[in-house]
Specification:
This protein has about 220 residues and is an alpha/beta fold. Helix content is about 55%, strand content about 15%. The longest helix has 25 residues. The protein is globular, with a radius of gyration of 18 Å. The structure holds thymidine-5'-diphosphate. Thymidine-5'-diphosphate (TYD) binds next to α4.
């Protein structure tokens, strides 16, 4: 029996997921709740090793890369997420199975149904009670990521909205990732709460809290 609550945060890189997770964790912890936050891929020693391999571009096959994400996910779910939920803790996840559908699905080389099946195997069918999707126009997300990087010596282009060739390729890919996230949210409107990530941090946090309070009301009522 799992008594805790599982909340995942999804969205493109650079939309502010980790800031919102920190704020939610602080808010819930200050109410005396046990809250743990974990990131994917990672969170466990196997997961962090896989994260390094993935980030280093070790996997050339998109299937192998997907399996690496799923392996990290299976370890995280069995070692940390399920035990935490069983003791009544709230678990906040920076990305979960929806990221595989969006990111690996957007590559266009893997069947969405295969990704779905592997997600179910890795999670044992565990789904978040709530998934907060921080939605941002892919171009804006790219400019935020660029702004977060240190400008290159002698002329960073953090201010320019002109895209170099890698960024142009990335924008096509991230537009597809964004589209898939939106489709997933439309297909499961009860689980997904879509928030406009261009709002300020506090406004987004207030909206997250409103939704979480509804969940708490449902849990006790
Ligand atoms: P990370 O640096 O954690 O990105 P962020 O913190 O900005 O979300 O790197 C995680 C990257 O891995 C991110 O680009 C999304 C990608 N990813 C997948 O492609 N598939 C997955 O299943 C997961 C969990 C992440």
């Amino acid at each position: 029996m799992l008594n805790g609550q599982l909340i995942s945060f999804e969205g493109l890189d650079g939309v502010g997921k980790s800031t919102q997770i920190d704020l939610l964790q602080q808010a819930l912890t200050s109410r005396g709740m046990e809250v743990i936050s974990l990131r994917e891929p990672g969170g466990t020693s196997a997961g962090e090793s896989l994260r390094s391999l993935i980030k280093a571009g070790t996997f050339h096959s998109s299937l192998a890369e997907l399996l690496a994400f799923e392996t990290a996910r299976a370890e995280l779910v069995s070692e940390l997420v399920r035990p935490a939920l069983a003791r009544g803790a709230w678990v906040l996840l920076d990305r979960f199975a929806d990221s595989s559908l969006a990111y690996q699905g957007a590559l266009g080389q893997l069947d969405m149904e295969l990704i779905r099946q592997l997600n179910t195997i890795a999670t044992g069918g565990l789904k978040p009670e709530l998934t907060v999707l921080l939605a941002l126009d892919p171009m804006q997300a790219l400019l935020r990521r660029r702004g977060a990087k240190k400008p290159a010596a002698g002329g960073g282009n953090a201010e320019s909205t002109e895209l170099d060739s890698i960024e142009q390729r990335d924008t096509v890919y991230f537009s597809r990732v964004h589209e898939i996230f939106s489709e997933l949210a439309r297909a499961e409107p009860q689980r997904f709460h879509v928030l406009d990530a261009s709002q300020d941090v506090e406004a987004i946090h207030r909206q997250v809290m409103e939704r979480v309070q509804e969940m708490q009301g449902g849990q006790h009522g």
